[in-house]
TrEMBL record:
Keywords of this entry: Cell projection, Cilium, Coiled coil, Cytoplasm, Cytoskeleton, Flagellum, Microtubule
Domain Growth arrest-specific protein: from-to ranges: 221-392
Primary location recorded for the protein, binned into one broad class: other
Single GO term (MF): small GTPase binding
Stated family: Belongs to the DRC4 family.
Annotated protein name in UniProt: Dynein regulatory complex subunit 4
Cellular compartment(s): Cell projection, Cilium, Flagellum; Cytoplasm, Cytoskeleton
GO cellular component terms, A-Z: Golgi apparatus; microtubule; motile cilium
Pfam families: GAS
Repressor in keyword set: no
Residue ranges of coiled coil: 28-100, 124-348, 388-415
Organism name: Arctia plantaginis
InterPro entries reported for this sequence: GAS8 (IPR039308), GAS8_dom (IPR025593)
GO biological process, one term: cell motility
Length: 459
């Protein structure tokens, strides 16, 4: 056994680890390969370090340039703000100038409104005079139209009388023609009936004679034939008696043939009788047709009487229709004329009310403008008192003007209703209902209580 002390004195080489690899146990070749690999990685790390240093320098350069641009932008912004302040000051000065111009324009507008109000008063007075003149003209036209209607009515009555006379003449002529045609039809039917009766009688007699002749001829032939047969039979029996009994059978045969001949002759006679009966049936049918024609003649007389009654009734209805048609035309003319007058009056009334409303709106706007101007100015109490007194005077004038217009409106409405009543037009047929002055909240009556200030409303 080896001594223990000697074994404890041996030391192990130190362990070297590079990149997680133990190099103490590598051979020389492996160490060389590992060294080359580590060297390559070192070169690669150096290249990357140089690249990142270049990138850092570029970023720093870009940051310096950006900071310089920021400083320039801030300086430009300060310049723009100063320019904006200067522009705002110039705009305020220009605004003050424009306000002064607007004040001058408002004053000119007020002066123009006063002149316009005076012109409107003059125009309203002229329109009222024109309305009076037009009303007189309408009354004159109405009288002329009434006279013209009377003349037309007289002319229509004369024309109606002439038409009645012409219609009566035409009706009498038509009645005469109709009666003549009826007589001709009756004569024709009677002649045809007589001719048919005669023809059938002659035909029947002829056929009966022919049948009788054929019957007599056949009877004579049968008698002669029977006589000859009887003679032959007699001779035959004599021969039988004389000769022999053997001929009896042959005679019987002949007798049977003769019996057949007799039966044929009787059959021919029966056929002749049946043919005579067949000829009797057409005669009976002709008699029945004759009775039917007589019945139709009786119905024809009754229909002719009914036709005459209906013709009279038609004439009466035509007269009534003509009268109603004439009355309808007269009423239509009156309605068109009255409707036209109604539309004209309505249009004038609407225009007058619209003008009044426009003037009132204009005055209200002017007052509001003046009130705003007063509030915008710091006037002395004395000036305010005088201005309020002046405005009170204007308000009184406006109230007087409104009362006058209201009175004119009521007068025009009363005249309109009186004219409609005079023409016989009910107020319900107008299609609208005029509104009269209405008191509102203790104030003076106000015109135009309809929607949007209208002076009429639907019924």
């Amino acid at each position: 056994m080896a001594p223990k002390g000697k074994g404890k004195g041996v030391k192990k080489p130190p362990v070297i680890i590079i990149d997680g690899v133990d190099t103490s146990e590598m051979t020389r070749e492996k160490l060389e390969q590992f060294t080359l690999k580590v060297k390559e990685e070192l070169d690669k790390e150096r290249e990357e370090r140089n690249y990142f240093q270049l990138e850092r320098d570029k970023i720093r350069t870009f940051w310096e340039i950006t900071r310089q641009q920021l400083e320039e932008a801030k300086a430009e912004l300060r310049n723009k703000e100063r320019a904006t302040e200067e522009t705002q000051e110039e705009n305020e000065a220009l605004l003050e100038t424009e306000k002064q111009k607007i004040k001058h324009l408002k004053y000119e507008q007020q002066a123009a409104a006063a002149a316009l109000r005076a012109e409107n008063l003059v125009a309203l007075k002229a329109a009222k005079e024109e309305h009076t003149e037009q009303e007189l003209e309408l009354l004159n036209d109405k009288r002329a139209l009434r006279q013209e209607i009377k003349e037309h009515m007289l002319a229509a009555q004369d024309e109606l009388r002439r038409a009645k006379l012409v219609h009566a003449e035409e009706l009498s002529k038509a009645r005469a023609v109709f009666e003549e045609k009826a007589r001709q039809i009756e004569d024709k039917a009677e002649r045809k009936l007589n001719e048919t009766k005669v023809e059938l009688t002659v035909k029947h007699r002829t056929e009966m004679a022919e049948v009788e002749e054929r019957k007599n001829k056949q009877l004579s032939e049968l008698i002669s034939h029977h006589e000859r047969a009887f003679a032959d039979l007699k001779n035959y029996y004599n021969d039988i008696t004389l000769n022999n009994l053997g001929l009896i059978s042959s005679l019987r045969t002949q007798m049977e043939s003769m019996q057949k001949v007799k039966e044929r002759a009787e059959k021919i006679a029966r056929d002749a009788v049946a043919e005579a009966k067949g000829l009797r049936e057409p005669l009976e049918a002709a008699i029945i047709d004759n009775k039917e024609l007589k019945r139709q003649m009786a119905n024809y007389d009754r229909d002719k009487a009914a036709l005459a009654a209906k013709t009279k009734q038609l004439a009466v209805l035509e007269k009534q229709f003509e009268v109603l048609k004439w009355e309808y035309e007269v009423l239509q003319v009156r309605f068109d004329r009255i409707q036209k007058e109604r539309n004209e009056l309505k249009a004038r009334f609407s225009r007058a009310v619209l003008e009044v409303q426009q003037r009132a709106s204009l005055k209200t706007a002017l007052l509001e403008t003046k009130l705003k101007n007063i509030e915008g100015r710091a006037t002395a109490p004395t000036e305010i008192h005088e201005l309020l007194k002046h405005k009170d005077t204007q308000i009184e004038d406006l109230r007087y003007e409104a009362a006058r217009l209201r009175k004119a409106h009521d007068d025009l409405l009363a005249t309109y209703e009186a004219k409609l009543a005079k023409l016989g037009v009910p107020a319900e047929e107008l299609g609208f209902k005029p509104l009269k002055a209405v008191a509102v909240a203790g104030l003076a009556p106000v015109i135009g209580q309809g929607p949007a200030g209208l002076v009429t409303r639907d019924p």
